[in-house]
Amino acid sequence: MSTLAAIKLVAVLMIAGLLFFGGRSCGVQSAHERNAAQARVMAAKDRALQAASRSFTAFAATFRSIDAHTVAQLAEARRRAELAEYAGGRAAAAEADTALRTRLLEQDLAEARRRRPACAQLFPTDLGDACGVTLR
Fold it and tell me: At the top level of its lineage, which domain of life is listed (predicted)?
């Protein structure tokens, strides 16, 4: 083999080596770029997931707050219904007591008119003239 042929062979091998390693370098570079692009996409998706998680956490807190408020309102409504029922019972008892006392008072006045003629004359004149009240 001559020197010129050896130089050509070395040059061809060098060019082949440059092409091989250059192509390999380009392939590695494009793989790095693809990985970087995928990493950016994954980072964007991660940020979106974190934002959605915070949003869902806020929704959950809001719903828990609404639920607690609703429970408190229901308890207050039950308490007020119990108080209204109690007050209604007390009002009915007071009305019955008032009716009973009125009947007793009317009976006492009627008894006083029957037993004492002076009371029968005094009540209609004084109360009727002074107060505008008439007794039965």
Answer: Bacteria
Residue range 15-42: average pLDDT? 79
Are the CB atoms for 91 and 98 separated by under 8 Å?
no
Angle at 87 between CA 85 and CA 92, to 5 degrees: 95
Is pLDDT at 68 greater than 90 in this prediction?
Answer: yes
Distance of CA 130 to the CA centre of its chain: 63
The string of pLDDT tens digits covering residues 96-112 is: 999 999 888 888 877 87
Amino acid at 97: D
Instruction: Give CA 102 to chain center in angstroms.
Output: 52
φ, ψ of residue 133 to 5 degrees: the values are -105, 130
